[in-house]
Amino acid sequence: LETACLYECIEIYGMCLFKIVRRYYRDRLSGSMLKSEDETFLTDIENEFRQLLLKNDELNKLQQEKREKEFQAGKEKLKEELVQLVEQHLNENEKQHAVREKEVLEMIENSKHFITYENLDEKIEEALESPTDFNYALDLNGNMFKGKPLEKYNKQNLLLIKPVSEETEPLIYSGKVQEKCMENFGESKLDAWLKLQNKPAENGSSVKCLKELCNDVIDKMENVDSVEEFFKMEETNMDEKTKLERQQEAIRLKIDGNAAFRDGDFAGALRHYTDALKICPASFASTRSVLFGNRAACYMKMEKYEEAIKECNCSVECDSNYVKVLRRRASLYEMQETTLEKALDDYKRLYEIDPADSEAARSVTRLSRAIDVRNEKMKAHAFDTMKELGNVLLQPFGLSTDDFQCTKRPDGTVNIEMKNRHR
């Protein structure tokens, strides 16, 4: 029982006990209680306590219904927060899109002053001699670069094969929605990052607006049970070569994160692992599981244990047999008495994976005993509380709870009666 419910039961028991003692002494003092009535009186006491047990069951049922209502309310609240986050990002991305459009138009306007058909050859030579000394250029694939080009582009693919003018339509890329939408939405719902890949517009096709892209994300979310399924859905049209390249880049970021972790830069390591997760395809579940596990290790070092548990959950979702993360999550659950059962479940899972794991076997035995000890302490505390309340109620009559004895019936109910009642 929860604390509030427990105290409510204690109050009911106290009132009933007070009523029983008062009636008993009233009948004794009046001399109206005969032996047969005495037996009837005891039977009435038993019936009243049976009613108390029924009342206790009703309270338990009400508490369960209350918890279910609170859980449903929490789910609805999370959905509302998700919609608000998406709407907020829509507004921000629309503003950014307008800024990018303005920049492109300015670039096109400025291009008329220094790149024309007449001086094209001259500009090509200048670009070859100093490939970083220009405002922007087009590579052989038609991609536009403003300012200093990326290091991977050399002189050969920075040839200005055509001028940028009013008639030249630049490639416009759609934006990217990226936000941590939900921390925890049940055990099987979306509980990590929403991500929409950059989608370049094909030649001759219109650019899909950001709002439509975000609506696509929301529609797809309704049909998936986890973020990993969402990523897999997004990667349906991605070729294997691209997936492999993204995985290799994610591994490189993971190596950088490992180096930062060894140097004690846990925040920096966390950033590297997060960047790796953003690009690692969901089809490489094992790699993603390791990255989530590494993020959990960072949070543990930063003493953010709740976040660490959530990362462990994501890791196990990717790979349910990842022993290292299962052991890490079990140690996190073991830090609090309220989650000892979850720690026990993880150690049992470790023992199922490897029956030769002696540490897991010892932990199962140790935690089972710890849970029993904790439960006994809780029962003893509840009993002491009830005893103290009973003494307060019985004190005006010169009695205490020591004047009563409790016996458990075969059907599980409890019989409470006064000691030496036949004197």
From TrEMBL:
The keyword Coiled coil applies. Residues 42-95 form a coiled coil. Keywords: Coiled coil. The keyword GTP-binding does not apply. Signal peptide: none annotated. InterPro entries: Ribosomal_mS26, TPR-like_helical_dom_sf, TPR_domain_protein, TPR_rpt. One of its GO terms (cellular component) is mitochondrial small ribosomal subunit. SMART domains: TPR. It comes from the Eukaryota. This is Tetratricopeptide repeat protein 1. The lineage of its organism: Eukaryota, Metazoa, Ecdysozoa, Nematoda, Enoplea.
